[in-house]
Amino acid sequence: MPRELGERDRYTIYLVAAIAGLAIIIFWHLMVALVFAGSIAVITLPLHKRFSGRIGTKASAALITLIAFLIFVAVIALAVGLLLQNQEFLNGLVSTIISWVGPGQNNSITTVLHINQTQLDGFIGNSNQTINQWADSIIGQIPALGFQLLVFFLSFSVFIYKGEELYNSSFAMLPEKLKEPVMHLTHTAVDTLYAIYVVQLIIVVVTFILALPFFYFLGFEHVLFFSTLAGLLKIVPILGPSILMAFLAVYAISISNMTALALLVIIGYPVVCAFPDLFIRPVLMGRRTCIHPVIMWIGFVGGLYTLGLVGFVLGPLTLVLLIKGYHILKGNHENCKTGREKDTDTQ
Question: What is the mean pLDDT of residues 213-220?
Fold first, then answer.
């Protein structure tokens, strides 16, 4: 017999929802770590199931957590190694820029901005002070960042180990009328999370490939270094490689290389930075989730704007679930077929 919610059940749900809301408020500063841990755990569950059959559930959760930690360390080591290996080259670029805008130097920037050298020197002094304060702030946040990482990996392990069991037990308590729409929403959420992270990996690779010929023709040498750095910076959505392009644009002006500046403005930013985020990402996401690319773009950019880094996941996920819920209300549970569903149909 279908299970119906009684008055006692409804009050229990209200109580649990209130406690959950209180927990979110209390642990709000840890939400970034928890959201990323939970969402990444979802897409690693198939791997967990495969490992569990061979080495057991606990060992599988520990092994996958270890693999995730090693990947994280490898990415950080690659970025730090690149910077250290090219430190002398980068110092040369920075020194050139500092010499160009340094005190007592007359250059084209004063003419373009219609300011005198004294004003420029004052601006540089204030900027240096701001940068130093920003650096001190980052150093001061290292313990908090370390704690966030600890929470991420511990939560990730727990989500892998107990996540599916918790979902199944919660799903079993639902009234029969709710089970079907919840199941459809769950499948949609999983597909969306797969798309977010798989597409992000594709975007990193695409950015690296696009950067290779661009930096080769730019003529600053160190092509592999710049291309790899652009790809790694793409891990940070939207702003990543744009910072690199802005830095190189300032360097191009400092050495009066207007050709390089034109390439950075006309090709570098639009092709290497903007094209993957504004076109490739929403199109690939839209194909996987059957949502229009414009809506996916709004989900990514709007989520990042309103929620920060965690909006990279919650923004598109919320919009996709909202649209899926609308189709469910219309009675159209299978409004489109994702790539996974098409593959299933052809088998």
Answer: 87
